[in-house]
Specification:
By secondary structure, the protein is α+β, with helices and mostly antiparallel strands. The chain is built from six helices and ten strands. The strands form three sheets. The protein has a four-stranded antiparallel beta sheet, with no helix packed on it. The protein has a four-stranded antiparallel beta sheet with strand order 6-5-9-10. Strands 4-7 form a two-stranded antiparallel ribbon. The longest helix is centred in the N-terminal third of the chain and has 25 residues. It starts with a helix and ends in a 7-residue tail after the last helix.
């Protein structure tokens, strides 16, 4: 018995829809985080160069949508701003970063340390928590991670600044995520501080202070 035109049309529509779904899968799966290639720290507008110690630290906030597109997670929606942190050692001896302490100090003098991966996992699992910078009761890590996609977990881990040292005449880089939820203009008037870097003899370097206005006022930054 010949296939009715309406049934044939329905089959064609179903086949077309299935093909479109299958075609879209590789596109979704191919969205993977790729670490930006770091340039020497002194080439970034927001930097603090120590000529005598031959070390420069720079930050490049990923606060604009076009820059943040390298991530699959929308960190701004969760109340975080990613900072690309670059450390360049132009000296002849290695510089240790094992004991560094980092803080973002906002215009209202709030002192914000970098978020840990678990902090970001919790926010991903409970987006409503973005109204505050801390949770009163830590949630079990295994339970929270179980609600976060493997892709997001890999991205958060791979993006982290994890350098323990900077070899002579080289650069290390990575992302630090700051919880700025509840702050309307977190970068305006803020300063990035890094302390605890040490030279090859164990002597602590002078602290690094980077006013974020250097970034906000850079000519190349879109308005």
């Amino acid at each position: 018995m010949p296939t009715q035109p309406s049934a044939l049309f329905a089959k064609r529509i179903f086949a077309l829809a299935a093909a479109l779904v299958l075609a879209s899968v590789p596109v979704l799966a191919s969205k993977e985080f790729v670490m930006p290639v770091a340039q020497p720290a002194k080439t970034y507008p927001a930097n603090d160069e120590h000529p005598l110690e031959k070390v420069t630290v720079a930050v490049d906030p990923y606060d604009m949508a076009d820059k943040a597109n390298i991530f699959s997670v929308h960190y701004s929606d969760l109340g975080f701003v990613p900072f690309f942190v670059i450390v360049t050692n132009d000296g002849d001896q290695a510089v240790s970063l094992t004991d560094i302490t980092v803080k973002l100090i906002t215009a209202d003098h709030s002192k914000i340390p970098p978020a840990t991966p678990d902090d970001i996992y919790r926010r991903l699992a409970h987006p409503s928590a973005s109204t505050g910078r801390t949770l009163p009761i830590p949630l079990p890590t295994k339970k929270v991670k179980g609600t976060v996609s493997k892709q997001a977990q890999d991205e958060i881990q791979n993006a982290q600044f994890g350098a323990r040292a900077v070899e002579p005449h080289s650069t290390q880089s990575g992302f630090m995520f700051f919880d700025v939820s509840g702050i309307s203009t977190p970068l305006a008037g803020a300063n990035f501080y890094l302390t605890g870097a040490r030279d090859a003899k164990g002597n602590e370097l002078m602290y690094f202070e980077i006013p974020l206005e250097k970034y906000l006022s850079a000519p190349s930054r879109p308005n």
